[in-house]
User: Fold these one by one.
Assistant:
Number 1:
Amino acid sequence: MSDNKKLYLNKIQFKAELDRCLNCKTQPCMHACPVNCNPQEFINHAKTGNFDAAVKTITRTNPMGQTCGLICPDKFCMQACTRSRVDFAINIPRVQATILENFRTADEDYSQIEPKAKSIAVIGAGPAGIAAASVLAKGGYKTDIFEADGQIGGALNLIPDTRLPHEVIEKDWKFISDTPLISLHLNTRIKDIRELAVKYDGVIVATGEPNTARLNIEGEELCLSHMEYLHHPEKYITNGRVAVIGGGNVAADCAMTAARNGAVQVEMFVRRRLSDMKISKSEYLELLYNQINISPLSSPEKAEQCEDGLLLQIHRNRYEDGKVTPLSDSSVRLPGFALIIKAVGSYADDKIEDEKIIYAGDCKTGGSTIVEALASGRTAAFVLIEKMEKTA
Ligand SMILES: Cc1cc2nc3c(=O)[nH]c(=O)nc-3n(C[C@H](O)[C@H](O)[C@H](O)COP(=O)(O)OP(=O)(O)OC[C@H]3O[C@@H](n4cnc5c(N)ncnc54)[C@H](O)[C@@H]3O)c2cc1C
Ligand code: SF4
């Protein structure tokens, strides 16, 4: 078993989770999974000690099974898990990550694949691009992945190492990429997608959401974007107070990182209610455990420099019938922050209409989750293959 006790299940926990599975014939866990991974099947294989088969079951539809196992939110398979009606859901993602960490011994087998004469370009090596490339290579299509960054993983690289070490992303990548059918071109930003569409038989655009959403407040330039902060947290280490604006899992990662890096106090300002925060229960508990203050129904109005650092002015909101409106005369001036981080979302570049171009992942659907981006990348690849086969 892996030494990394925090990220994977130990032998006793692993066996306990396998034993708790009710082997539901209707497979609700599989139907709830965007990539149709089949926990009932891999748990059964693992129970009988057939770990090769368990690995094959997971990797059949999920090219980033180990990464998913560490960060997949509990709203898919776990929410559907029948065991939650008895006590609590099987920790399916962790079972999956533990199986791949300990029992994956070989890479994807492409030996039976017949290469096709067509070649595809995939832009972006985040989960959607990786999933698309995996389906295309399994179909025999030569696939060039162009990635602007110097490493694969896309937005996953912003997730703190304590939740997702980069080596896990590389391990999943190594599993699918050991074939001449896939070529990765790092540090290659594509400026003209149409030009690529002329050279290739099809293009899958999986460029995520590279632009940070604005707060549109006075003094916004004093606030750091979540992308800059999470890319280089070492540049912004402080033992002062840190404000984080936003209430999703990106904001939670910023808050946790600041707390871990020594901030004396971290406060999250969330526009809606606590129950509206888009974070999992375990993330919420982690915020509480790390003594992160959460101010719900609070919106920023202004940031400014003050004597002891940065001042954030906020107002309070009223919540009624699902609507959030500002409460009048509720402005509060909060001085003394060392950092104000904005983590209120991001957005995609404009899209191009072209027969040969298909969009996938967050740039198509808006901010989602790893498993939804994987599903979207797979679907894009299947759609493209069908199109190419029709015109062959
Ligand atoms: C801080 C943070 C925490 C998160 N936590 C979770 C979590 O706990 N669980 C979860 O399920 N999801 C989480 N997510 C969301 C998840 O990471 C994304 O949904 C997923 O990565 C989207 O995949 P994608 O492939 O569509 O886009 P991305 O991962 O954004 O990948 C897009 C890639 O395209 C590249 N690119 C962009 N433009 C170009 C260009 N012109 N040329 C070449 N390459 C280009 C980018 O460099 C990038 O590598 C988190 C995201 C963030 C930012
Ligand atoms: S829903 Fe839960 S208990 Fe039922 S087979 Fe899936 S993992 Fe096992």
Note: Residues 370-391 form the longest helix (22 residues).
Number 2:
Amino acid sequence: MHTTVNNKNDIVKLIDVTKCTACRGCQVACKQWKGLPGAKTKQTGTYQNPPDLSAQTLKLVRFSEGLKENGKPFWYFFSEQCRHCIEPPCVDTIAGYTPDGATKDNATGAVLFGPKSKEAPFEEVRTSCPYNIPRQDEKSKVLVKCNLCIDRITNNRVPSCVLSCPTEAMVFGERDAILDKAKKRVEFLKQTYPKAQALNADEVRVIYIVVDDPKKYHQYAVA
Ligand code: SF4
Ligand code: SF4
Ligand code: SF4
């Protein structure tokens, strides 16, 4: 659903993890569009690479594996990024130190960090985020995260990561249409996976469909 969006303040991105093949196209597309470099890493026993979000990796495909309650194995993929909260606690935290450090864009709802965010204490901002998303550029000290490709979506283009996704695990469009799509998909998935749900759909602009306890998708998350 790569649509042109008329009411840009009503946009959401849906990430259906059950359609994700962990190709990491989105991870690479994000780096390409943002001009961010790759990072030197080493194999630590997981395909999750690099190991975490960083100032150079704003989109990361998480890999998690283990056994379900019924003893059957799972191997989950989760294309991680900022959720663009409707009421973003990170913005409030940054504003407590520097009013111009972060904002929620009126036209799109995208949550944006600016250069002045370096004046806010990183750990406090990071822990104020329910999803452990903000990171800090080591050199400039500026806080960073996904900006929902605001330069693209304000020009009627979908986010770079969405465009790259070969399975349509990620779609982007108007809230009502996307929520309807999510509802139907969850109803379908529940027939096989009773725990299927769309996570916090009323609170965020980046909504994930999962089929298990959300914590299980973050096995190698750095706390
Ligand atoms: S997910 Fe975290 S960083 Fe993103 S808008 Fe919400 S609180 Fe802020
Ligand atoms: S929306 Fe843009 S900045 Fe955000 S993860 Fe996707 S490609 Fe990266
Ligand atoms: S591009 Fe799509 S299928 Fe590939 S890792 Fe990202 S979300 Fe998954």
Note: Residues 20-26, 61, 79, 164-165, 167, 169-170 surround iron/sulfur cluster (ligand 3) (CB under 6 Å).
Number 3:
Amino acid sequence: MSDNTLFTEYNLQGIPLKNRVVMAPMTRSRAVEANTPNELIAKHYEQRAEAGLIITEGTSPSPNGLGYPRIPGLFNEAQTAGWKKVTEAVHAAGSKIFVQQMHTGRISHVKNLPEGGEVLAPSAVKVADAFGQMYVDGEGMLPLTPARAMTTEEVESAIQEYIDSAKAAVKAGFDGVEIHGANGYLVNQFINPKSNQRTDAYGGSVEGRARFVVKIAEGMAAAIGKEKVALRISPYGVFNDMGAFEGIDEQYGYIASEMNRIGIAYIHLADMSAMTKVPVPDSIKELIRDTFKGTLILNGAYDKSRANEDLNKGKGDLVAFGVPWIANPDLVTRMKEGIALTQPDQNTFYTPGAEGYTDYKRADV
Ligand SMILES: Cc1cc2nc3c(=O)[nH]c(=O)nc-3n(C[C@H](O)[C@H](O)[C@H](O)COP(=O)(O)O)c2cc1C
């Protein structure tokens, strides 16, 4: 318990982490060929192997979940082989890596999907205009493609896609899989009644809205081991037309208790309030901390001192940093030694190529 808690080792259900600094998942849209990870992506993660744990950018388990331009997938052999290069590079450099499974659901443009892909969601509910646009290469910003509501069979096959992708993740050498249940993508669309108006077993009640993620986590735990399964959530987050709803605490308390029952490795709590200016109450964070007995990762506008403070107070076990990693591949060294952080160029967050991706320098070169 000190100013250095962040730099102490941690045992993540048998996975030894060299420190408690996590690299948060960040979409960077560099998978230019057939949504397949490449050497450039491997280099980017390898450069950031000072992190105790790296969580990859959102990666789709399904052709239907590739709603953003150039995001990677993990549902075919080429993608599995591409990710293998990433995990080998990261492991050789001394870090651990989970893949984040992100299915974009209704936050998609059909032109970003491969041939035959379809924009599907729990219900055919239009996304509010503030979040209603999507970039398409060569065309610029376009209105989101209206989603078709999934049939019950389609919900069940989507669950199977997550489970199959988790098996591919193990083949690709990942230490585990983080289900993206945050920020308004498919899992979150099932959890929130604003986007889930279903009347079958996958909607209509606290248990119904949680069923999609619970079945994914259960199926993955059976297929690859519960210690390799994790979940990211963003209760009270407003990004992508989500936000609070009646019974939200009960909803997330239930999800946390189900994840505890399944025994997953960690819950990752994303708090985007610094960006959205809509506060996330401490009470929901405490409820999740009390209900879920596994590892809790905190995230959202952290710096070193706030991270140490919250770890020392027992609010969480690990802290994920997002934006600070973009321009500081040596973030751990910089935080340890008090070296100023470089500010990233927002114009290259999602552009293809090395610029603003692998060309940020360590402080010592
Ligand atoms: C460029 C960029 C891409 C992001 N992509 C993802 C993503 O794919 N999946 C996800 O869960 N969060 C994503 N996020 C959110 C971050 O993981 C993190 O929650 C957010 O940046 C707040 O943490 P920070 O203040 O440390 O940056 C992204 C954030 C940025 C800046």
Note: Residues 152-171 form the longest helix (20 residues).
